[in-house]
Write a structure and sequence with these properties.
Blueprint lengths: L1 E2 L1 H8 L3 H9 L7 E3 L2 E5 L30 H8 L3 H9 L14 H13 L27 H13 L5 H19 L10 H6 L6 H9 L6 H11 L11 H9 L2 H7 L6 H14 L8 E3 L6 H8 L7 E5 L2 H14 L5 H7 E3 L11 E6 L9 H10 L10 H11 L1 E12 L9 H10 E10 L9 E8 L9 E4 L2 E4 L17 H11 L4 E2 L5 E4 L7 H4 E2 L7 E4 L4 E2 L2 E2 L5 E2 L12 H4 L4 E5 L7 E4 L4 E2 L3 E6 L6 H8 L2 H11 L6 H5 L3 E2 L3 H16 L4 H15 L4 H11 L10
Parallel strand pairs: 4-5, 4-7, 5-6, 7-8, 9-11, 16-22
Antiparallel strand pairs: 1-3, 2-3, 8-10, 9-10, 11-12, 13-24, 14-23, 15-19, 16-19, 17-18, 20-21, 20-23
Helix pairs in contact: 1-2, 6-11, 7-9, 7-10, 7-11, 7-15, 9-15, 13-14, 14-15, 20-24, 23-26, 24-28, 26-27
Length: 723
C-alpha cells in the first residue's frame, strides 16, 4: 500500500514540501514517482531529516539550552567574523571571555548582539558586516524588460509580501499568468491563481504550481492581504527569468549574502552562451548541466538559443528556486512532461548528491563565499582537494566538482570572481586547472553585479591531456586576441589578459639573473582600522593629535599636504599593527587601491589608515630607497598590472616583483636621483623619466620591450609628487 505526499507529511509530522524534497533526494525508502506524483510505502519509517539549524540573531534565543560555553570558533560563526577579527576584539577588550580565560557564556554573547542591534556598542557601531545586512532590493539588471522591472519595484514598494507563504502565492499567481500568455489563453483578471487551482480538468502545469505552493493554505484572508500584489500583471518574454527577478528581489539580502548567491544579469548569461557557440558549432546536440541553477536563467537562455530542453539539466539547494526553474522550462518547452522536467532539474546539495551521468557542457555562476556548517565543512574536506586552508571557498569546490562531472574534452564555463586567477587563497583550484585542463576562452567582465565591487570573468576550460593555453580566446571590452604561444604558470597565477608579445616582455622581467624578492625579506603591516573614522579622525591639528595619512594622500616620492589628524590610542581602535611598525625609523608607504603601484618614503614615524599600508624591506645588500625606486618604476607597474590585473596592491603582488641585485655604486646612483625627486619642486616629470630609464636598463629590456611597457601604461596616472 502507498500513501500520498500529504499523508506522509501528516505521518512524519513535517511539511509537504519537505517530504517532496526528501523524496527527490532519495532519502525516503521506497518512494516512487508515478505520473508526476510521489507515492510512498505506508510502512516506511520516518526519514532522518538532516537539516541544519541556523543561528538567527533576530530570534529570542540563539543557543540550545544545554550549551553552557562557547569557544572563539563558536562566536565567529554567530557574529559572522573571522577568527583574526575575534582575537583582535578580545585583545582590545571589545569582547571578553566570561567563563575562565577562553570561553564565553551564551548569555554574554546574546547581550553583546543586542547591543550591536540597538547601536549601544559605540566601539563597534560603525563596523560593516555585510552578511548581517537586511532589507530587500530590486535587481534591476537581472532582466531587460522595463515593465517587469517596474512590477517588482512596485511589489517592494507595497511592502505586503512578508513571509515565505506570501512569496510563494504571489510567484504562483505570476507563473499562472505567464502560463496563460505562453499558451495564448485569454484571462480577464490578473488574480488567476485560485481559478486555475479549482479547475476540474487540469494539465501537468498544475503539479508545478502545487510544488511551489506546497502545503500552504490559500484562503480569502490570504488573497485579501495580497490583493494589491495579485492584481498586478507580469509580462511573458520568452527566455526572460521574470519569476527569478521577483523571487531574488523579495528575498532578504542577508539571506542571499550568507548563501553566497550573486544572481547573473541576463546580458552576462547571453555572453557566456555566445562563447559556448563560438567554441563549439555542435552545441545544440550536447547535454548541458548547471549545478547551481537557481531559478534557471542559464537554462532559459540556452533553451531559447536553440538547445533542446530535453538536454538541459540543473540542480540547486534552494527548493523554491528549483520549483521556479522547472516552471520556466515548462513555459518554453510545453512538450516536456512534469516527470521529465522534475528528473532533469533537481533539488539537492551538488557537492554531496548529484547526477551520476557525465555531461558535455557545464555552465553557471557558482555561489561566492557561501557559509558552510561544521558538518558540511568536514565532509567537503574529505571529498575535495580544494577544500584546504582555514576556510573553504564555494566556487573553488564547484569547479572541482564540475570537472569531475564532465566527459573527456567537455567544456566548463563559469562566471567567477577575477580574483581566482591570482589570489593566494585559490592556489589549490588554480593548480588543479593548470594540471588537468586546457583553456578555451576567458572574458573579462569588470564589475557586472549591481552594488558589488568585484571584477568578474567568464572562464571556459576543458579537461584534456594537452593542458595548453594555445588557442584560448581572450576578450576584454572591445579588445580580443587569441593566444598562439604556449605559456607556463610557474608562480601559480594565471596571466591571461596579455598578448603573446606582452607575455614575452613579462617573461623577460621575470627571468633576469641575480634578483631578490621581498617574500621572506620584508615586514608588512596594514594601516589603522579605527572602526569609526568620524569619531577618531579630525580635520584640524591640535596639541593632542598627529598627522595620519590615507591612501589618497600617497604620491610617488611624496605625499599631499596633511589633511587628517588622529589621537593615537591603539586600544580604542578596531585593528592596529604593532606600534613599532608605525614608528619605524624608515619605512615605505603604499596605496592599497591604485591603477599603478604608488610608494613613498617615510622617516617621520607617520601613522596611516588602512588604505595606506606599510612595508619595511630587509634585503641583504639592498638599500631601502633603491627598492623604492624599483617599485615606483614603469617596469614594476607593468609587471604587477599584467601579472595580477588588479587595482588592489596585495602583499603577494609585492613579494613576487623581481628586484635586480646591483652594486653599491649603481644603487648610490639610483638613490641620488630618488633624493633629487623627493627634494625638488620643479621638473619632477623629467627627473622621473630619467630615473625610469635607468631602471629599465637594470632589467636589460630591448627597445621593443620598452615600447610595449610604455604602450601598456599609456594614459595611466603617474601620481608623481606635486603633479
Amino acid at each position: 500500500m502507498y500513501i500520498s505526499v500529504n499523508d506522509a507529511a501528516t505521518k512524519f509530522n513535517i511539511s509537504k514540501r519537505r517530504v517532496q524534497f526528501l523524496c527527490e533526494q532519495g532519502r525516503i525508502s521506497g518512494a516512487n514517482m508515478v505520473g508526476g506524483v510521489w507515492l510512498i510505502p505506508e510502512t516506511t519509517p520516518k526519514p532522518i531529516d538532516g537539516r541544519k539549524k541556523q543561528i538567527d540573531v533576530n530570534q529570542i534565543s540563539l543557543f540550545e539550552g544545554a550549551q553552557k560555553a562557547l569557544t572563539v570558533d563558536d562566536i565567529c560563526k554567530v557574529l559572522s567574523i573571522s577568527k583574526a577579527t575575534a582575537k583582535n576584539w578580545i585583545r582590545l577588550g571589545k569582547i571578553a571571555p566570561d567563563i575562565g580565560e577562553q570561553l564565553f557564556s551564551p548569555e554574554y554573547i546574546e547581550r553583546f548582539i543586542e547591543e550591536l542591534k540597538s547601536d549601544n556598542n559605540t566601539k563597534l557601531k560603525s563596523r560593516r558586516n555585510k552578511k548581517r545586512a537586511t532589507g530587500k532590493v530590486l535587481y534591476k539588471d537581472y532582466v531587460h524588460t522595463t515593465h517587469n522591472q517596474q512590477l517588482v519595484a512596485d511589489l517592494l514598494e507595497l511592502g505586503i509580501i512578508e513571509t515565505e507563504r506570501d512569496v510563494s502565492v504571489v510567484l504562483a499567481n505570476f507563473a499562472v499568468q505567464l502560463y496563460y500568455q505562453s499558451r495564448n489563453i485569454q484571462f480577464a483578471d490578473n488574480c488567476v491563481l485560485l481559478d486555475f487551482l479549482s479547475q476540474v480538468q487540469i494539465d501537468e502545469f498544475h503539479f508545478l504550481i502545487k510544488d511551489l505552493i506546497g502545503d500552504y493554505t490559500i484562503d480569502s484572508s490570504v488573497v485579501h492581504k495580497l490583493q494589491p500584489a495579485l492584481s498586478r500583471k507580469i509580462l511573458f518574454v520568452k527566455g526572460e527569468d521574470s519569476l527569478g527577478l521577483a523571487y531574488i528581489s523579495l528575498q532578504d539580502i542577508g539571506k542571499r549574502k550568507c548563501s553566497g548567491a550573486y544572481y547573473t544579469p541576463e546580458k552576462v548569461v547571453n555572453r557566456l552562451i555566445d562563447r559556448l557557440y563560438e567554441n563549439d558549432a555542435n552545441l545544440k546536440t550536447k547535454t548541458i548541466y548547471d549545478p547551481c541553477c537557481g531559478t534557471g536563467n542559464f537554462l532559459l537562455g540556452l533553451g531559447v538559443k536553440g538547445i533542446d530542453c530535453a538536454n538541459l539539466y540543473g540542480q540547486d539547494i534552494d527548493p523554491i528556486s528549483v520549483f521556479l526553474a522547472r516552471i520556466n522550462i515548462s513555459l518554453i518547452a510545453p512538450q516536456m512532461s512534469v516527470h521529465d522536467i522534475r528528473s532533469r532539474i533537481i533539488i539537492g546539495n551538488t557537492f554531496f548528491n548529484s547526477f551520476s551521468q557525465k555531461f558535455d557542457v557545464i555552465v553557471g555562476n557558482p555561489p561566492w563565499g557561501s557559509d558552510f556548517s561544521e558538518e558540511d565543512t568536514l565532509q567537503c574536506r574529505r571529498l575535495f582537494k580544494t577544500a584546504v586552508g582555514k576556510s573553504i571557498e564555494s566556487y573553488d569546490l564547484f569547479i572541482e566538482k564540475a570537472l569531475s562531472m564532465l566527459v573527456s574534452k567537455g567544456i566548463l564555463a563559469f562566471v567567477l570572481p577575477e580574483a581566482i586567477l591570482s589570489v593566494a587563497a585559490h592556489n589549490s583550484i588554480r593548480k588543479l586547472i593548470i594540471d588537468s585542463c586546457s583553456f578555451k576562452f576567458i572574458t573579462y567582465l569588470g564589475n557586472v553585479f549591481s552594488g558589488v565591487q568585484c571584477p568578474s570573468i567568464i572562464l571556459g576550460i576543458s579537461p584534456d591531456n594537452k593542458k595548453t593555453v594555445v588557442g584560448c580566446k581572450v576578450t576584454s571590452g572591445n579588445d580580443m586576441f587569441i593566444i598562439s604561444e604556449s605559456r607556463t604558470f610557474s608562480d601559480g597565477t594565471l596571466s591571461l589578459k596579455i598578448t603573446d608579445e606582452e607575455n614575452q616582455c613579462l617573461s623577460a622581467i621575470s627571468n633576469i639573473k641575480n634578483v631578490a624578492y621581498l617574500k621572506g625579506n620584508a615586514y608588512f603591516a596594514l594601516g589603522i582600522v579605527t572602526g569609526n573614522n568620524k569619531k577618531y579622525i579630525f580635520s584640524e591639528k591640535q596639541n593632542d593629535n598627529e598627522v595620519i595619512l590615507k591612501g589618497s594622500d600617497i604620491q610617488r616620492y611624496g605625499s599631499t599636504t596633511p589633511r587628517n589628524y588622529i589621537r593615537f590610542i591603539p586600544e580604542s581602535f578596531q585593528q592596529v599593527a604593532p606600534v613599532e611598525m608605525y614608528r619605524a625609523k624608515e619605512k615605505l608607504l603604499y596605496r592599497f587601491i591604485s591603477e599603478v603601484p604608488v610608494f613613498t618614503y617615510d622617516n617621520q614615524q607617520t601613522l596611516t589608515l588602512n588604505s595606506c599600508n606599510i612595508v619595511i624591506p630587509n634585503v641583504n645588500g639592498l638599500e631601502l630607497k633603491y627598492i623604492l625606486a624599483i617599485f615606483n618604476s614603469s617596469v614594476a607597474a607593468y609587471f604587477i598590472s599584467k601579472r595580477f590585473n588588479s587595482v588592489k596592491l596585495l602583499r603577494s603582488h609585492i613579494e613576487q616583483m623581481p628586484i635586480p641585485v646591483v652594486s653599491k655604486d649603481k644603487q648610490a646612483s639610483i638613490i641620488k636621483k630618488v633624493d633629487r625627486i623627493m627634494n625638488s619642486s620643479e621638473n619632477i616629470s623629467g627627473l622621473y623619466e630619467d630615473l625610469d630609464r635607468d631602471i629599465m636598463a637594470l632589467y636589460e629590456l630591448t627597445v621593443e620591450q620598452v615600447k610595449i611597457i610604455q604602450t601598456a601604461l599609456c594614459g595611466k596616472p603617474l601620481f608623481l609628487k606635486g603633479c
